[in-house]
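Student: Send me a single protein entry containing the residue sequence and its fold in C-alpha cell form, directly below this note:

Tutor:
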Amino acid sequence: MNVKDLYRATAIMKNYEEDVQENDTLNIPLNIIDEEDNQRKSEYHEIQKWINCEDENIRELIYIKEKLKNKKQVKVYTDGSLETTLTENIMGFGWVIPEVKDYERLTFRGNIKNFPSSTRAELMTIFTALIVMPKRSKVIIYTDSACAIQNIKIITKQINTRKIWTENKNPVILQMINDIVQERRLKIICHKAKHTQEINTMKSRTP
C-alpha cells in the first residue's frame, strides 16, 4: 500500500469512528428524550382531558402528580372562597398537600369566573386535587365547607347518580368528580375542618 492509499484508508477509518461516536452520543439520548416527551405529552393530555386551563397550571398539576405517583394515601387541605370585583365574579380556590416530604409541601391555586358560589369553588378545589391522585389511592379531604361535604356524599355513599342532576345546584362539577373517582377507583373521605396553618401559609405566599 502506497502512502497515498494509507492516508486515504486512515481518513476513512477516522470518519467511520466519528460517525460511530456521533451515533452513540445522539441516538441513545434521543430515544430517551423521545420517550420522555411522549410521557409528558401523555400526562399533558390526561390532565387536559379533565380540565381546560393555562399551560402553566397543567405543568404544575403534572409536577404534583409525579410527586404523588407512589402514594397510597394522600391528605388534602382545601380552600374555596369567593372574591368579587366590579366587573366580574371570580371564585378563587386552592389546596395544599403537606406530607409529601419533611421539607416539601405541594400547593395549587386557581379561579373560576362567573356564576359565583362558594360551594362551587370548593367542589372545583376538590376536583382539581383529585386530578393528580394516584389510581386506587385513599384521599382524605379536609374542608371547611359543609355543603361541599354533603355534595361529595352523593358519590362516596354510592347514591343514585341521577341525584347529581336532579337534586343539585352544581351538577356539572359533581359529575366530573364522580367520573374521575370511578375511573381512578379512588376512595374519598371528607372531614369538616377550619382553615389550617397549611392553608393560611399558602394564602400568605400568594400575591
User: Anything to note?
Assistant: The radius of gyration is 25 Å. The chain has two domains: 1-50, 56-205. The beta strands are 73-84, 89-101, 104-113, 138-143, 187-192. Confidence is low (pLDDT under 50) at residues 19-30.
